Amino acid sequence: MSKRFAFIGAGSFGFTRGLVRDLFTFPAFRDATIVLMDIDEARLATIKKAVERIVEAGHYPATVIATTDRAEALKGADGVITTILAGDVDVWQHDILIPKKYGVDINVGDTRGPSGIFRFLRTVNPILDIAQDISRYCPEAVYLNYTNPMAMLCRVVQEQYPALTMTGLCHSVQGTAAMLARWIGLPPEEVTYTCAGINHQAFYLNFLHQGKDVYPLIDKAIRENPAVYNEEIVRNELYLALGYYVTESSGHNSEYVAWFRKRPDLIEQYCTHGTGWNPGEYAFILKEYQKRKHTWQAEIEAWFQEPVKLDRGGEYAASIFNAIFGDQQMYKFNGNVRNVNLIDNLPYGCCVEVPVLASAHGLEPIAVGKLPPQLGILCSTSAQMEEMAVEASLTGNRDLVYQAICFDPLTSAVLSLKEIRAMVDEMFAQYADWLPQFK
């Protein structure tokens, strides 16, 4: 029986094109109905044309529908994917600009800290509205979220709608594993690992090739190969200090800790000269979005002139759907789920990123026990801040937002309590129209 997939926020071109392509690589989904939903009609029309091109290139007996009506998109869906962004760049730029005014230098700002928390507070209501509609129109669907801030959004949905089969996905786990394999000359498909923690701060607790620990090879590469060290300076410094390698880029991770961005000389030393895709430049993603706001149409038109690639990519989503209601081949991945006896030294019920098994039985998270203490401290600080922000979003408690940001490692390394209060108040004022729960 043909399956139906709803893409909410389908105007996210990179994700939508890649995930649709991946779905069609599984025989069970080649005759699927792909429903594209977005509130931006221009982007929606363009992505519909792009997906139809993929269908035509693969000669798939699939159907493509585009709509601005979320209920229409969700009715009868077997799988749902969210890739939404609450507000254009002209709105969310203040997540980065206001903290900078007070001395908090942000690279991306989509995960935690003052920028990530206010991004969450703006996004939580739309995400909960989507979850409510999934519960109403397709309660048996498998719901996969790609929207950031991943941990807080998954946490609130999984608490408010516990009956949904839902997890959040981030490509930093498999992406970093491939990078580490490359550094030591191994094919990425030959390495295995156990990775656990919280989103963007998960760590490879082991890293194996044919059952053998290859962390010593990674250590040697970082310490002795300048090209390897310079590719990910912040993450390599974290590894040298903590003994385990972290997921997500140096730029992201430089914001989550107190050690790299609290002084201009440290930013220059650690966050400026790396050769990886995001070493830590101030407002890196903001600048990218500001540029693409005026170039996205030209970029997508250029894609229409290129050959269509039909090979499966590295994202988890299609393989998860296939394991649960396709050919039901079990699939193991890292997902974001609530911590119900999964990581012993992180807060019970917080959102953690751990191995998950997808099968005909649904999603089954795998317990990893206790993180090494140095990782437990690092992850627990962020997880407890996220717990406070989630509670604030549900209760309208402004003080909880302020108090959560008080404990952000970078913010607390730079600002006094009174300065943090002033910054938070300014961000509340800037986003007043986006935060009805705080009125």
Name of the CATH first level of the largest domain = Alpha Beta
Kindly report the average pLDDT value: 97
Q: How many whole angstroms does the radius of gyration measure?
A: 21 Å
**How far apart, in Å, are the first and last alpha carbons?**
48 Å
DSSP helix fraction: 40-55%
Give a short account of the largest sheet: 6 strands, parallel
Named CATH architecture of the largest domain: Alpha-Beta Complex
Total domains, how many?
2
Structural class: alpha/beta
Low-pLDDT windows of residues:
none
Strand order of the largest sheet: 3-2-1-4-5-6
**Could you please say which CATH topology of the largest domain applies here?**
LDH C-terminal domain-like
The gross shape turns out to be: globular
How many distinct helices?
A: 19
Question: What is the CATH homologous superfamily assignment of the largest domain?
Answer: AglA-like glucosidase
Give the tally of β-strands.
Answer: 13
| Quaternary structure type | single chain
**Beta-strand share of residues:** 15-25%
Task: Outline the structure in words.
This protein is 50% helix and 16% strand. By secondary structure, it is of the alpha/beta class. A 6-stranded parallel β-sheet has the order 3-2-1-4-5-6, with helices on both faces. Strand 12 and strand 13 (362-365) form a beta hairpin.
In a few lines, what is going on in this structure?
The protein is an alpha/beta fold and 439 residues long. The chain has helices at residues 13-24, 41-58, 70-74, 89-92, 94-102, 113-137, 150-160, 172-183, 215-224, 226-231, 233-242, 250-256, 264-270, 284-304, 317-325, 373-395, 398-406, 409-414, 417-430, and strands at 4-8, 33-37, 63-67, 79-82, 142-145, 165-168, 191-198, 201-209, 212-213, 245-246, 331-338, 351-359, 362-365. Strands 3-2-1-4-5-6 form a 6-stranded parallel beta sheet, with helices on both faces. Strands 7, 8, 9 and 10 form a 4-stranded antiparallel beta sheet that branches.
